[in-house]
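Write out structure tokens for YbaK/aminoacyl-tRNA synthetase-associated domain-containing protein.
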Amino acid sequence: MRAPIGNFESAAPAASVEHFTGPAAEAIRGWKGAVPRDQLLHVDTDPAKADTAVFIENYGEDLLGTSANCVVVAAKRGGERTLAACVVLSTTRVDVNGAVRRQLEARKASFAPMDTAVEETGMEYGGITPIGLPEGWPVLIDSAVTDLPWTLIGSGLRRGKLIVPGKALAELPGAVVLEGLGI
């Protein structure tokens, strides 16, 4: 099958890819959203080509406007810490001190340390994805991402990416779609 975006050798429904494992794979195999599960696609990628400029050069210029990043933030209020995922277009950055802090009603918000993000998500750094996050996590998604017909996101692993309809992300547990999350 040919991927709907990018220049990948092939794409396959993620639920059927045997070497795709971890929390995201489990979540996709159990997917019950309105977007059909077979539209959640997996593509193999080379981790050595993960740097954005090299990735775009190797896998397609069209990915620059259709890729999204997922970052983990830690919000604090009254001694309580909340971890959340934020998904924005790769051409923008997360408005941590504005949109995130307001949405999570936090006094302070910042990017979670790498070891915390990896340990809490069960995913590899550089591959963290909003699909398959721990139960109860807020998943803040910029509306520009959910408006895309197709978007490229992490797969939870550094080897491989997911290509999904943007609207599928709005169906994730804990999802909140926000205007202006990415600035």
